[in-house]
TrEMBL record:
Residues 192-317 form the RNA polymerase III Rpc82 C -terminal domain. This is DNA-directed RNA polymerase III subunit RPC3. It comes from Henosepilachna vigintioctopunctata. Belongs to the eukaryotic RPC3/POLR3C RNA polymerase subunit family. GO terms for biological process: DNA-templated transcription. Residues 323-400 form the DNA-directed RNA polymerase III subunit RPC3 winged-helix domain.
Amino acid sequence: MSFQIGKLISLILQERFGIIIEKVGNFLFEYGSNPLLYIMRGTELPLGKVKEALCILIKYGLVTFKPNNNENIANYSLCIDNILLMTRYPKFLNLLKKKFGDESEMIIEELLQNSYLSTSDIIVKVAERLKCDVNDLPNVRDKFVSLVVAKYIQRLPTPNEEERPVPILEIKESVLFSLPKIDMKLLSQVYLKKIPKEELGETVFWIVNFDRFHQDMRDKYLVDAFTKKFDENVGEFVKLLLQQMYIRTDPWAETSNPVPLLEIKDIVRKKVIYPNLVTFFDQYVTVIEQDPSQIIRKSGEASGGSFQIQLKEAYNQIAWEIVEQVILEKFDSKAVRIFRLVKLKKFVEPDQIQQLAMIPSKEAKKLSYQLLEENFLKLQELKRPLANNGPIKSFTLFYIDLESIVRNLLELCYKTLYNAMTRKSHEKFINKRIIDKKQRVDAIAMGIQSQGATEEQLADIEDMITPPEREILGKIDRKMKKLNIEELEVDATIFLLQMYLKYQ
């Protein structure tokens, strides 16, 4: 793994868990899988602290363990992808809130905060946050059940039946999303604190299924791409096509199985949200079929034919567009023209670029070698003898290695994300006094408001913050919002590039 990812992981662990866990994480990142005593020596931390740090990291799925060669000692490994996912939690919550509502968002939020919970813990915690009556518990239960059925939540792996010094955590795929029996009478008594939750005797715990969220994000970006390219009706068509794809195709397949057009047409007729899609359905089908990107292709002619989604091709084209946009922002439109030329021709001689791209020779050479220096282009040398025992002539060709470019861009994204997070920490540190004062004033205002304070009393509390301080707080707030938006946009680019690599 790269140096940039190491810096980002270190910062995430420090912000969320503290210095001790950051040290343990840094050691595992740098030296890979290691047993407990090696981690203790490498970090120079007391054994108890290392054990506590590993317990927390294992609990949150950020470290895994497995037996070493003699099967008596565990080797611990850092789950780098799971640590990087922590920056994406707000997106998961927002996505679920829009799709299922506030209760479902709270269920996922509780699981993300606690890592894993039993069924009763989830229902009781969310009900307490909502201040529900005991009669409303079934509503929370139904939301929980719907999330399990939709596969946003899955069972936590447990130690297998074999007795070993180092347990092996596993779970059968057949029971991954199976629901246990929920006794609402006993659960109501737990909620009312009439009996302890231990009397329920629960053995099933639940965790968040990140893979399911990534499927939704993948589909959303694809639908958004078609909506921007055409209109909302085409976006809705693609959305329905993806939904029907899940019935007959593995979610992460490169190409979906054929989805009958009549099936989509029937679903569209039942919906009243997009009347134009019903009226001009055949015309929209023709537009999609003739789209040069060929992401959605028609297969078969019987009964109107079927459509297939080329997910690998879709994210391949998205990756090309991201690279071209980066080149445009980093250089100019002429550099993009050169890049597209090499993409079209596969291999191009340097002398041909000025002719084919219609750019002056000096400028074409400058831009070409700038692209080469930044690893957007690569060189390949070919040698060919002119005659037997004669001089050897060499040809230099420009070509593109998209996978290499994507990996370089990911490194740049990780660096940008690290810089944004570091800047946020710096802004909080240098303005700590005024931020703390604002929090104290807000806490006092909330306290007296709950006691029935008048508007004059609340105004007096607000006046504790002077106009110059209020102006500074406004500037801090604008900076923080800007940095938060930057983080979300960079994470979106990271996700799209990761999708390209996943399908390779």
